[in-house]
From TrEMBL:
GO terms for molecular function: methylmalonate-semialdehyde dehydrogenase (acylating, NAD) activity. This is methylmalonate-semialdehyde dehydrogenase (CoA acylating). InterPro entries: Ald_DH/histidinol_DH (IPR016161), Ald_DH_C (IPR016163), Ald_DH_CS_CYS (IPR016160), Ald_DH_N (IPR016162), Aldehyde_DH_dom (IPR015590), MeMal-semiAld_DH (IPR010061). SUPFAM superfamilies: ALDH-like (SSF53720). Its EC number is 1.2.1.27. One of its GO terms (biological process) is L-valine catabolic process. It comes from Thermogemmatispora tikiterensis. It is an enzyme of class 1 (oxidoreductase).
Amino acid sequence: MIPNLIGSQWIHPARETLPIYNPATGEVIEHVPLSGAEEVAQAIEAAQEAYQTWSQTSVMERTRLMFRYKELLEQHTEELSRIITLHHGKTLDEARGEVRRGIEVVDFACGAPTLLQGRTLRQVTQGIDQDFYLYPLGVVTGITPFNFPVMIPLWMFPLAVIAGNTFVLKPSERTPLGAIRLAELFLEAGFPPGVLNLVHGAKEAVDALIAHPDVRAVSFVGSAPVARYVYRQAAHQGKRVQAAGGAKNHLIVLPDADLEHATAAILNSAFGNAGERCLAGSVTIAVGSVQEPLLEALRVAAEQLAVGPGIEPGIQIGPLIRAEHRERVLRYVEAGIKEGAQLVLDGRRFLNLPGFFLGPTILDHVTPKMTVGREEGFGPVLSVSRAATLGEALAQANEVAYGNMAVIFTRSGAAARLFRERVEAGMVGINVGVAQPFGFYPFPGWRQSFYGDLHLQGSDGIEFYTRKKVVVTRW
Ligand code: NAD
C-alpha cells in the first residue's frame, strides 16, 4: 500500500484500499488507501504547524529551495516520466512532455522575488502614502485528476508554497504514484516537513478537506460535475476556490487551411494521451470544400497510428485508464451511431489486446445535438461535423456547454481574427491543435469548463494563493 505524507512521516493508514493498475497489461501494481477525515485532519494539523514558520521564512530562502527543487525535477525527469507511463498508460514521449510542462510552473515560481511584490503610491493625497503587500492565506489544498499525475499537482503546490502557504495534496486515486515521487523530491530539496503533505483517497477525503475549518482555499481539476460540486461546497463554506472541469473542444478547418499540417495536428489533438486530455480536440468541424479531403486524410492517417504499451518506442496511442472507463467510451460511441453518426474508423479492433486498449475511432456526420457532439467522451474518439461557412461552424462550437479550447486551421488572418473574437472558449489555437498555455500564463477555461474567478497557473495562480493588505500612512 502506498503511504500518506504527514509532515515528515510516511504513514500507512488502516483503511480500505483500491488497486492501482498498469493499464497496458491490466496487472495490479500497487494499492492506494482511501483516507478519511482522520488522516485529513492529521495532514492539516501538520500543514498548520509548518505554516507558522514557513509563512515567515524569507522570500529569498523560499526561492532558493524552489530552484533546488527545479534542479531535482530536471534530474529525475526520465524517472518521473516512466512512473507516469507505468500507471497512467500514456506514451513515454507524452509523459516526458507532461513533466516538462509541469516544470515550467516551477520555473515560474522561481520568479517569486518579482511575483510577490506589492505596489506603492506615495503622496496619494497631502502627506499620505499608500502601499499594498501580498500575504499568504494559510493551509490550502489541491485535488487532482488522473490524466496528468505530475503536471497538474505542479500547477498548484509550487505557486502556493512559494507564496508562503502550506499545502495538502489529494492526488487521483487512480494515478497517485507521480505525486509520491514529487513529494519525496520536495523533501530532498530541503523544504521543511509539513509544507507539502499528501493524503490519498477519493470522495470522503475530498469532502473532509473542503469541510475543514483550517483550509483556506481549494484548487480542483477534474470532471465537470465534480468541479461544480467542489465549487459549491467550498464556496458555501466561505473558501476561495478554483475548479477546472471537463471540456468539449472544437477544431474548425477552413478550405484554405494547410491540409497536411491540419491533419497531423488534429490527430495529435484528438488521439494524443488516448484522448484523455481536457484539451483534446474531440470534434473537427470541416467547412465547405475541405469536408471530403479532410475526412479521407484523417481516416488514412489515423488507421496507421501505432496502438500499444506506451513504454515501447514508436507507440502513438496508449491504453485507457481502466476497463470500466473503456466500457463507458464504447457506450458513448454506440450512442453516437444510434443517434445517426456514421462510423468511419472502428477502434474496437484493438479490444483483444491485453490491457485497456481502444484504437482511434472516427465518427462522421456528428451534430451538436448528438451525445458524441455534445458530451465529453475522454477517449480516442474523433467526431467530424460539417458546416457550410465559418459562421455556421462557430455556431456549432458555441452551442455546447463547455468552453475550454477552440482551434481554427486557416491561412486567412481575417477569418482567424473573427474566430478569436467570436468563439466562446478561453484557450484558442490558430493553426495549433492543442492550445495549452505555457506555465507562466493562466489556464482559462470558460463556461462549464471552469468554476471560480482566478485560474490555475501563471499570475492568476499567484493571485489565487495570496491576499492583499493595504496600508495608508501619514507620518
Ligand atoms: P474526476 O472528477 O473523477 O476526479 C477528479 C478528482 O476528484 C479526483 O481526485 C477524485 O478523487 C475526486 N472525486 C471524484 N469524484 C468525487 C466526488 N463525487 N466528490 C468529491 N471528489 C471526487 O476526474 P478524473 O476522471 O480523474 O479526470 C478527468 C476529468 O478531468 C475530465 O473531465 C477532464 O476534462 C478533466 N480535466 C480538466 C482539466 C482542466 O484544466 N479543465 C485538466 C485535466 C482534466
